[in-house]
Amino acid sequence: MIKIVREENKNINYIEKLKERAEELQVDVNMTVQKILEDVRKNGDEAVLNYTNKFDSCNVKSLLVTEKEIEDAYKSVEKEFIDAILLAKENIECFHRKQKNNSWIMTKDKGITMGQTVRGLDRVGVYVPGGKASYPSSVLMNVIPAKVAEVNEIIMVTPPSKDGSINPNILVAAKIAGVDKIYKVGGAQAIGALAYGTESIFKVDKIVGPGNIYVALAKKAVYGNVDIDMIAGPSEILIISDENGEAKYIAADLISQAEHDKLASSILVTTSEKLANDVYKEIQRQVETLERKEIIKESLKNYGAIIVTSSIKKAIEIANTISPEHLELMVNNPFVYLGNIKNAGSIFLGKFSPEPLGDYMAGPNHVLPTSGTAKFFSPLSVDDFIKKSSYIYYSRDALEDVKDKIIKIAETEKLTAHANSIKVRFEK
Question: Which of 165, 312, 319, 333 is most exposed, with the fewest beta carbons within 10 Å of its own?
Answer without folding.
Answer: 333
